[in-house]
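Here is the promised in-class demo. Please do not try to memorize the tokens; focus on the logic of going from shape to residues.
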């Protein structure tokens, strides 16, 4: 390890960071809360809570259409957040030249809505009978069901690439499924259940060579490491605010301008029109607003902008190393427990530990951990096909974020030890 890396570890102060998250400072079941459900949703720093409160206290109005000071302020904050997202989508490297344009940043309700938007607006106008949509066994339901719906409507066919026992994508099998019939590839960058980081840059390259359009689900990626959609060369990229230290109910669809431009609108209503007439017909406004029908989640967008700016002040390399160190400690402890079966041990995975305890149901393990103030997620994690592939009903999942500490890892392992002695 280089001297710089060592100094970065020393510089990363998870305790100082967690002090910015008031929610983490509470007792559950009489014990300090250990929050290890970050893959479901991350907590929010004071900066985000404050930005939302400030907006509602001072600047709230509807956006884009007012002719008064509050409307101007709300619009400015809303559109500034869009530029912050554009910058974030090129890894915070700044500058619009060669980067992401505001036309390419669509605000949505979250990852799910972003995928539904692409499935409907792009899918219904580009897919036909026999065309293929290539997915993987590790997709979240949000990246399966919209494609099943559009396949049923268009006659397109879904192909599913397998996952190896380690939790890695079987890239050879995936490549074998790719053909000139593949019109769309949709893949998660990071598995919410396994923590696996997929080789999406290579996937995009191969998919493009086959003539397919690629959507990357970044819901579990953006909070763990910087992403540059231009470098990835993704056609569509989606994520949710609430998994990125921002509010619920807001997310982003990035789309290549030429593709978005050629797509018909999905939802109709205010904000997305140029002119509406019964006699002369209705015309639509340009990007990005063509895909933002209705009053948007203004406070959510502003909160998301605040989350991105907050993250901009974090040494992300050091944060990632901290998360990896937490994971190593968890992995070592779990590996020493002979009644624990780990699901997902792909090299280079993010800080997610999914496992089963012999002779017990994941729900019971989760409940007994909760009684010790330790919050984990149990169940299928909205990845039922993946559960089917492993032949299991669900897993216990502990998922870590940059504000988790080594003490919390130890509390979790001690808590799990207690559960093992009960069950
Ligand atoms: N994709 C992945 C990989 C996820 O982990 C999730 C949420 O857990 C989603 C999509 C759906 O995100 P949302 O519910 O915020 O739309």
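The designed amino acids, position by position:
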């Amino acid at each position: 390890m280089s001297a710089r890396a060592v100094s970065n570890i020393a510089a990363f102060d998870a305790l100082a960071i967690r002090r910015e998250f008031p929610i983490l400072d509470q007792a559950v079941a009489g014990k300090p809360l250990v929050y290890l459900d970050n893959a479901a949703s991350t907590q929010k720093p004071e900066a985000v809570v404050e930005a939302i409160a400030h907006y509602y206290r001072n600047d709230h109005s509807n956006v884009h259409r007012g002719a008064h000071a509050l409307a101007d302020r709300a619009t400015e904050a809303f559109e500034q957040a869009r530029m912050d997202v554009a910058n974030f989508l090129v890894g915070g490297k700044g500058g619009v030249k060669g980067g992401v344009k505001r036309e390419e940043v669509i605000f949505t309700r979250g990852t799910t809505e972003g995928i539904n938007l692409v499935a409907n607006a792009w899918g219904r106008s580009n897919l036909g009978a026999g065309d293929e949509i290539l997915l993987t066994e590790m997709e979240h339901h949000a990246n399966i069901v919209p494609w099943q719906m559009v396949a049923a409507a268009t006659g397109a066919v879904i192909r599913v690439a397998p996952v190896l026992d380690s939790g890695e994508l079987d890239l050879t099998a995936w490549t074998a499924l790719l053909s000139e019939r593949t019109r769309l590839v949709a893949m998660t960058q990071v598995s919410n259940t396994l923590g696996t980081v997929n080789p999406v840059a290579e996937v995009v390259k191969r998919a493009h060579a086959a003539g397919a359009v690629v959507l990357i689900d970044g819901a579990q990626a953006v909070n763990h490491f910087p992403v540059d959609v231009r470098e990835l060369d993704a056609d569509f990229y989606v994520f949710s605010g609430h998994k990125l230290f921002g509010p619920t109910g807001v997310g982003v669809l990035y789309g290549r301008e030429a593709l978005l431009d050629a797509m018909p609108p999905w939802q109709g209503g205010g904000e997305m029109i140029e002119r509406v007439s019964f006699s002369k017909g209705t015309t639509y406004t340009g990007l990005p607003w063509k895909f933002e029908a209705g009053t948007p989640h203004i406070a959510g967008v502003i909160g998301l902008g605040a989350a991105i700016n907050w993250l901009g002040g974090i040494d992300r390399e050091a944060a990632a190393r901290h998360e990896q160190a937490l994971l190593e400690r968890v992995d070592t402890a779990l590996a020493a427990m002979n009644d624990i079966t780990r699901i997902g041990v792909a090299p280079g995975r993010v800080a997610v530990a999914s496992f089963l305890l012999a002779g017990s149901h994941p729900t019971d393990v989760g409940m007994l951990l909760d009684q010790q103030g330790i919050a984990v997620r149990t169940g299928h994690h909205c990845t039922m096909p993946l559960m089917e592939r492993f032949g299991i009903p669900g897993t216990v999942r502990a998922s870590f974020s940059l504000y988790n500490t080594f003490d919390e890892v130890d509390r979790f392992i001690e808590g799990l030890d207690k559960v093992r002695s009960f069950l």
